[in-house]
Fold each of these.
Amino acid sequence: MSSGQGESGGRQEGQLPASGSVVTGGGNGVVFSGESIRPAVVSLSNQRLRLNPNKEHKPDTYDDLQLDFSPSIFSSLERYLPPSMLGMPRDDKVKFMREILLKYLPHGERNRVQKHREYRQKIISSYQPLHRELYTMHPATTFVPSFLKAISDNTEESFRSIMSEPSPGVFTFEMLQPRFCELLLAEVENFEKWVNDAKFRIMRPNTMNRYGAVLDDFGLETMLDKFMEGFIRPISRVFFSEVGGSTLDSHHGFIVEYGNNRDVDLGFHVDDSEVTLNVCLGKQFSGGELFFRGTRCDKHVNTGTQSEETFDYSHVPGQAVLHRGRHRHGARATTSGHRINLLLWCRSSVFREMKKYQKDFSGWCGECQREKKERQRTSIAATKLVKSFFLLKKING
Ligand SMILES: O=C(O)CCC(=O)C(=O)O
Ligand SMILES: [Fe+2]
């Protein structure tokens, strides 16, 4: 399993111009409710996972547990359990799978997961939510009807009917109900007030942000998991399948804030995500445009921008922007007012695993595509040259 689905939340902006340093953010899963280990599981700990998933098996749901990995990772992994374990109590399966997941993490990462778990535990044990209804997914009060209809139809046509694609790979659409935006803004304000009153040192989404908050850290992780699975994955399956859009299985959910006494702008970067959702929650502001500069794989992240890849977008409250994490972007200075956005970095452990073993995984990179075209042009030109050489030879006897 990739550690990317664990708790790393840093933007991968290190190599890019005009960027800050890579940071830890928060990741997925809150706290594991550590009970004592039962012997049944200990004796099974040397059992191996199956090579192929058991597709007939219907996995348990893990949404109601406080775990240090995303609940959907447990549901996916359950299909790989040895057959003798499938009928076991859910707690036993959780312990077994958690041990496996931890085993895959290097030692330093394991410590970080542990520390982060304690950090979340501290917040959740004393923070009193303001609007409890936000903590469970209620589609009808969260999303606008046009968006819900497109999701329930679940076809490329239905998605295209509510979306614009003003630049290749950047999709914009109306998504959240104004009332939901208001409640979320009030919840974030309430959380920040608690942080100040309690003099609690919170982790920011990234070192590039001095403000903002990780929503997963104060209890919204399960709701955001449902948000991703039910409402982002179906769209990504259609538009971003080549970067794991259909297998998104974990997320990093946070708020960014700009304006007076807040962050001003955001440097040029790529996200630590396969697919990024960026929704403007409010309030009133000027400036703060997003700028996009083409999709790049690791090898080409610092290459120049072609004119057709340049795209600037002014965000509107309630509107969503959906793009590949590797689509290079940044945000210009918010020159007045207060701009607050919800960010959901969606990740696919399957895609990250496959990327490790397959070299040619970047057909979606603008520069790879250009290189490929150039190679084709050169080979066509070479073929023509050889053909005319033989023709000339034939003519000249
Ligand atoms: O400020 C914005 O809207 C962009 C935020 C962003 O790109 C990010 O947090 O990764
Ligand atoms: Fe970003």
Note: DSSP finds eleven helices and twelve strands in the chain.
Amino acid sequence: MKLGIENIPHHWIEEIVNLAGERIVVVDREGVVLYINSAYCEFLGTTVENAIGRPVQDVIENSRMHIVAKTGQEELASLQPINGSEMIANRYPLIINGELVGAVGTVMFRNPEDWLSYKNKIQHLVEELNYYKTKAERNSKSKYYFSHLVGDSPSFTAVRKLAERVSSSQSAVLLLGESGTGKELFASAIHNNSTRASFPFVPINCASIPEHLLESELFGYDEGAFTGAKKGGKKGHFQLANRGTIFLDEIGDMPLAMQSKLLRVLQEREFLPVGGQKSIAVDVRIIAATHRNLEKMVEEGTFRQDLYYRLNVIKIEIPPLRDRNGDVELIAINLLEKLGRKFYRKGIKLSAEVVERLNQHKWQGNIRELENVLERSINVLDGKIIELAHLPLYLRDQETVNIPVKIDERESVNVADIPVQPLKETLAQVEKKAILNALSAANGNKQEAAKLLEIGKTRFYEKCKLYNIH
Ligand SMILES: Nc1ncnc2c1ncn2[C@@H]1O[C@H](COP(=O)(O)OP(=O)(O)OP(=O)(O)O)[C@@H](O)[C@H]1O
């Protein structure tokens, strides 16, 4: 007997799909319906004959299948109103022999009660999955080497050489640079080039953790340290990084009280978990990073001078992209390869005009901004060459090259509703709204929301803190 679907007579397949309770649609790269099963058509109030060969948007209300067929990005469990019911839609890119050829979509559950019972059943599995996903992401994030740090400009080459040279030392490293310049990549490359490479690299973003949780995140806690503390306590990042490297990103955002505790670990090489009685010894190399001016913060009294000296043993200043002559094109080509793999779109190139425009731009958001621009361009691209027309508006219009402001219907504000008040307050209101909108569009995923807003995650966390958004 054959080992596949060939054993099933072809005319059974439709019935099997219908029995499985799924409503299925298949579209090609242009979003044209190639197949839709009768159960789905029944639900839509149409017929298979009517639906086949038509653009999917004309057949299914609020469909996003044509988008998935272009981007290659799957969309799972997204809510889709059809015929007045909230449906749960799953949309998968259809990849055959490594090439994106279309998309497959299913919808299920006619009513929210069914969804709730399903959700309760799988909730713990989802949580478990998320836990392993985060862990896997963290592991893969630490896998950068100096060869991943693309750039040939003299300013960047000098910095990369310095970082390479100091990676074998055990001293603390302080990475300075604007948001999106690659500080985390540098930290990871230093770790992987050091004698600690076979031990963990543990990154922690000091700005993204609420102040009251930072201590237990860094140093862990003992059983019974506070109400709700896990049985058996919890290990902190310092303990997890033992014999490896801890990367303290956005160290400039660490509250003063925590700075004192961190200083103690650096001096004594041991720490006390929250609620603990016994100190734990650790052997950890520290790499800290910030986009803030720590010297100024020391002068202003918001950063401890003694801690600054402890961290500033080896200072590495990563240049902003606009000061890296010739690197933009090189990095863009590298990012296109990476994005090509992510979206199953191989061989995408930049037109000469686009290269020129990218070289002219000031890149306030550095490589992260460049990455977002390219990702967006790929999403609106049909062929293989990114032309000026595919760039976001603020890059297309030379007059406004350095003003990355994006206004579209989603972000527009009804001016008539705004009371007369100081401009600052109005701007804050709009900013908060934009953040909430992005969070809701990203299903609460902060990194994704920051990406949608085209700002760095650090700035995003700062804004959330400022507007009390949890
Ligand atoms: N030299 C480089 N070559 C290729 N890609 C890079 C390079 N440097 C950074 N990137 C990419 O740019 C993005 C931003 O890098 P990273 O997160 O390391 O910046 P950062 O300085 O730590 O930012 P932040 O301060 O906002 O946390 C990442 O997606 C990273 O993969």
Note: The chain has four domains: 5-110, 142-319, 342-400, 409-466.
